[in-house]
Amino acid sequence: MKEKRAMRLPPTADGIAEAARLLRDGGLVAFATETVYGLGADAASPTAVAKIYAAKGRPSFNPLIAHVPDGVAARREGRFPAEAEQLAAAFWPGPLTLVVPVAETGSVCELARAGLDTIALRAPAHLVAHALLTEVGRPVAAPSANRSGRVSPVTADHVMEDLGDCIDAVLDCGPCSVGLESTIVACLGARPALLRPGGVPRAEIERVVGPLEAAPSGAISAPGMLSSHYAPRARLRLGAASLERGEAGLDFGRQFHDIASDVPCLDLSRAGDLAEAAANLYSGLRRLDASGVSVIAVAPIPPFGLGEAIMDRLRRAAAPRS
Ligand code: TXA
Ligand code: MG
User: Fold this and answer.
1) Beta-strand relationship, 37-42 and 140-141
2) Mutual orientation of helices 274-290 and 156-163 as an angle, nearest 10°?
3) What's the 144 CA to ligand 1 centre distance in angstroms?
4) How far is CA 37 from CA 63, 71, 86, 118, in A?
5) Average pLDDT estimate for 125-154
6) Mean pLDDT, residues 27-52
7) Fold entry, domain 235-318
């Protein structure tokens, strides 16, 4: 086994204080949010942020989300139009990221924003993340704590597998409750636009601000949008009615029948519950991938509610790799 150098910190006052100290000193610390584990660095420090891109192997044109403890801190970093105010009031703290024009009072460095004059802001609901962000006292830039293009981590073990040898610490808070990244909404034009489906279902957002525009096409505006993202090693076959020889199965609501006992197969939610399926998705993909199969057959999943984000991730994971 590879030697690991990342410290595993407990989610105690001491663990949080140590994580905050490392972040203020320019280190890389992975921490849990309710969505997925983030790979954090001081968002004001280009040197610290550069380490995120290096550790992930991430194309540097991908801007990062700045994490803040609350709306007050967020409004120092971004200018909030009326719809952003409404969405922050309705869903923060929580699994929603807002892209707004950057504020003059902002402290997030250009590298973290990839040179854009807009900024992605998120106030997570996870209590330990909140305590950490409060203690750091400045925004923390954090993409998901996986190598670029791989499956996002929802446990500290996942983080250690991908990045254990190139980060300073992981604040271990157990499994993430939502299990899918935040929903990203841009409040920049006439109407808010959905850049990435995620932990807050579209319908809930549309109840607050009305119909969302589609993400602008062309330029990569939310590179979670790169095809071939969130990818396991195995190929995925989506919408499978049954398993073919040699395939592993990722079921939903017990749609696969008569599976031989030696076939790797798991059900995202035997009850057909989309929230449970979202929470199990990335761990399930990792487990089936670890079985060494070359194809994972995925049962049909309804594309509404959290199913929209689940299907978005599965389609990207199934896309041809470059
Ligand atoms: O749940 C989440 O959102 C997790 C946790 C750690 O907070 N973070 C996450 O980060 O998924 P990441 O880097 O994997 O995805 C952030 C997405 C990227 O697709 C990025 O392109 C987009 O946010 N983004 C960041 N700043 C942006 C901006 N100014 N305009 C448009 N998209 C932006
Ligand atoms: Mg990611």
Assistant:
1) antiparallel
2) 40
3) 8
4) 17, 21, 27, 24
5) 96
6) 97
7) Rossmann fold (3.40.50)
As given in the structure block, the two tokens for residue 170 are 């992981």
pLDDT score recorded for residue 64: 95
* Residue 142 Cα: closest atom of ligand 1: 6
Domain boundaries in the chain?
A: 7-209, 235-318
Going across the sheet that includes 37-42, the strands are: 7-9, 169-171, 29-32, 37-42, 140-141, 65-67, 118-122, 96-101, 183-186, 193-196, 213-214
pLDDT in tens, 184-199: 999 998 899 999 999 9
Query: At 295, is the secondary structure helix, strand, or coil?
Result: strand
Lowest mean pLDDT among 107-121, 188-202, 212-226: 212-226
Strand partners, 140: 42, 67
**Nearest ligand 1 atom, CA 118:** 29
CATH code of domain 7-209: 3.90.870.10
Q: How much distance in Å is there from the Cα of 224 to the middle of ligand 1?
A: 7
- Which residue puts its alpha carbon closest to atom 32 of ligand 1? 222
